[in-house]
Amino acid sequence: MCSAMYALSTLGGYVLTSVVLFKCPSLLHRRKKETFRSRHISHRGGAGENLENTMAAFKHAVELGTDMLELDCHMTKDGEVVVSHDKNLKRSTGVCANISELTYAELPPYLCKLDVSFQRECSCEGGDDKRIPLLREVFDAFPNTPVNIDIKVNNDTLIRKVSKLVTKYNREHLTNPRIPLLFSLQRVLFLVGLFYTGLLPFVPLREQFLEIPMPSIITKLKDPQTMTRRQRLMAWLADTLLMRKSLFNHLQARGIQVYVWVLNDEEDFKRAFDLGATGVMTDYPTKLKEFMERNCSS
């Protein structure tokens, strides 16, 4: 009986302490300083309104007032850091070649029309700008705009080059390459484990940004008739585990921004902000801007 009472009191003390620290993390952790806060994030510059990852797309998004540009990087055969999503150019240019196999001068232009990856049966037709840009061109053109860099391949040379460019252009406070500031997939799983075991309030976190998908959007990207019961169950389970308002609020209280991607309709915009997401990443920056003007006071 005494052992059972001791175990119950210990468990009760742990649960109570966890709940208090979860609600008030500043009691244990110093809030991280935010150098910028992004609510409106343009995915690939706004791939639903201009050809993805082009200077035209980035310019359009910045002129709309986007808080952050999201883009993707690869390295050419001659060591240039270029802005492009795919390793292979077949989808975007029609030429079946890897970026790493071509010099920058040999890179073909984008096709006139590209599918929007996160909007089923939608495509975007571009204007005159079909050129694959250099990362340094983006830094030159938008010196004050935060940039979320997704380095698409595990290449130490590419990572070093991106880091050097960030330093060269004095963008350490504006640019978050996917090294070590964002949660990796393994760290996201670790975070979820901490959250559901009650350990999260006790553990220090080095990351400043949590960038996660909204799993429920998979039902909008695929034809529901082609999805198996298992796929639907997995999407529901992932969505239930990840999309937690209490988790988002706790992270924000610790100064960790939460970005949800890639959302392209008002229903999902509303859900993400209602859950407490700091920002939303979209292919349609105009649509998100209009939604925020109608619904978001800050």
Automatic annotation (TrEMBL):
User: Taking every annotated instance into account, which residue ranges of this chain make up the domain GP-PDE?
Assistant: 38-292
Q: Tell me the compartments it is located in.
A: Membrane
Q: Which residues cross the membrane?
A: 6-28, 188-205
Taxonomically, which superkingdom?
Answer: Eukaryota
Q: Pfam families per the record?
A: GDPD
Q: Does the keyword Glycosyltransferase apply?
A: no
**What main location does UniProt list?**
membrane
**Record keywords: Coiled coil included?**
no
Family the UniProt entry places it in: Belongs to the glycerophosphoryl diester phosphodiesterase family.
Name of the protein described by the UniProt record: Glycerophosphodiester phosphodiesterase domain-containing protein 1
Classification of source organism: Eukaryota, Metazoa, Chordata, Craniata, Vertebrata
